Amino acid sequence: MCLLTRHTPLTLTRRLIRVSLTLLLSSVLAAPTVVSAEEVVVYSARKAHLIAPLFDRYTQQTGVKIRLLTDKAGALVQRLLAEGKRTPADLLLTVDAGNLWQAAEKGVLAAVNSKLLNQHVPMPLRDPDGHWYGLSKRARTIIYNTTRVQPSEIGTYADLAQPEWHGRLCLRTSKKVYNQSLVAMMIARHGETKTEKVVRGWVENLATAPFSNDTKTIQAVAAGQCDVAIVNTYYLGRLQRKQPDLPVALAWPTAESGGVHVNVSGGGVTRYAKRPEAALRLLEWLASEAAQGDFAQLNLEYPVHRQVPAAPEVQAWGSFSADPMNLRQAGRFQARAIRLMDRAGYR
Length: 347
Hints:
The protein is α/β, with parallel strands linked by helices. It has helices spanning about 10-30, 50-60, 75-85, 95-105, 115-120, 175-190, 190-205, 215-220, 235-240, 275-285, 290-295, 310-315, 330, 335-345, and strands spanning about 40-45, 65-70, 90-95, 135-145, 170, 230, 250, 260-270, 300-305. Helix 2 links the parallel strand 1 and strand 2. The longest helix is centred in the first third of the chain and has 21 residues, at about 10-30.
């Protein structure tokens, strides 16, 4: 502390005042951000209309306000890295286990130990170390044109590389993380050599260049541009709501071949969350019976909670055997999958 007396020269007094003000301003800027205990900040790669209704209900039930910022998964992870300890984000939501694994690897997610989450989210659909948890399940399976293909002709993902499907297969671009995760899980199960042979066969069997999204892929199958394709089921559900007579149906690879590739949309508490307890409570609620039906139904996905039924139109697709491997493998083998697809000419 500095004391001023009436004998202190005026110029010195002004200098000391400036120094004091500078130190005061520095201490204010260095102080931790003051945050409301009744608020959770969510960074989400999911579109707002798919989760905002749930957040509104949570606010009505608990009084906790949700501040939502949406962007692409990669951009949000980079933002969290840039913000570091200054980030306002408490919770990260995104799609695909590959993206969740990347977020955990880059250190932007905190490990949590939640009895409720461990109880509600099956082990294959969550990070074994507690960095992220699946909140809805999505199946990426085979579709076919019902006027050109019999269900008995459909076997496994690998079968689509066989000569009988030459010029009859459609795919979405390999640049999308959904296909990267599918191939990554194939590498984890079958090895890189066998998987590359399959992917090369897919490329040889393409009826046309890969599409930019699953909706266009399904429409190509419906139009007869190709006979079979690989897509996420909820894209078909959206189209069927508008066109119930769409000549496209789903086929499920068998458990003997590894089962159906499933992935998740999910989330995790951020490493530098200002309100980690509140963020964890929101994450637990999203995985609870109270929210799971709506969470999955908004996008025609499958609930991760075993006790919660899927939407009626999703149930109508029938049951399937999901690949039991932990989805962390989708992230661990992602880089190898990308290189493999590039070597195979899958663009």
